[in-house]
Design brief:
The chain is of the alpha/beta class. It has one domain: Rossmann fold (3-Layer(aba) Sandwich), CATH 3.40.50. Helices cover 41% and strands 17% of the residues. It is built from five helices and five strands. A five-stranded parallel beta sheet has the order 2-1-3-4-5, with helices on both faces. Helix 1 packs across helix 5 and helix 2 packs parallel to helix 3.
Length: 147
C-alpha cells in the first residue's frame, strides 16, 4: 500500500472564478494550495520553495515569463505547468514557454481534477526524484581482528 504524496500547487491568477475552480480540483487530492496574484510574486515563489505544480493564467501580465523562469530554474524546472488559456492563438507560445498542459477557460472544478489525475504520474515521479526518503536497513559491522 503506497502512502499518498502531499503535493503543493501554486496558482498564478487574480481571477476569482478560476481560483474557485482550481482550489476545488486541488482539494480533491488533499494538496496544499497557494494563490499568487501577480507575475512578479510568482517569479519569487519557486525560488523560495519547492512546488509540484503550477497553474498559470495567461491573462496575468508576464505569465509566459513566469513559465520560462520556472523551466530555467534549478529545483522546480521539472514542475508540471498547467497553462489556462482563453484563445487558441496562445497555444504555440504557451507550449514553447514550457507548459505541459493547456486548459481552456472558463475552468470547472471537474476539469481541473481530471487534468490533475492525468498528470498525477508526472507529479509523483518528480516528487520522488526530488525528495529523499528515509530508509531503515539492518547493518552488521565486522571487525577483522575479532571474529
Amino acid at each position: 500500500m503506497s502512502i499518498p504524496l502531499k503535493l503543493e500547487f501554486v496558482l498564478v491568477s487574480s481571477d476569482y472564478a478560476m481560483m474557485n475552480a482550481v482550489s476545488g480540483g486541488v482539494k480533491k487530492y488533499g494538496a496544499k494550495f497557494l494563490l499568487v496574484p501577480t507575475a512578479e510574486a510568482a517569479r519569487d515563489c519557486p525560488s523560495r520553495r519547492r512546488i509540484d505544480d503550477v497553474f498559470v493564467d495567461l491573462e496575468v501580465p508576464g505569465a509566459l515569463a513566469v513559465m520560462e523562469a520556472i523551466r530555467k530554474g534549478t529545483s522546480n524546472s521539472k514542475a508540471v505547468i498547467f497553462a489556462c488559456v482563453t484563445d487558441a492563438k496562445e497555444y504555440t507560445d504557451t507550449l514553447s514557454a514550457g507548459a505541459n498542459f493547456l486548459l481552456r477557460k472558463p475552468l470547472h472544478q471537474n476539469s481541473v481534477a481530471l487534468h490533475i489525475t492525468i498528470a498525477k504520474e508526472l507529479l509523483e515521479r518528480e516528487r520522488r526524484r526530488y525528495f529523499r526518503h528515509a530508509v531503515n536497513l539492518p547493518l552488521v559491522l565486522k571487525d577483522e581482528v575479532a571474529e
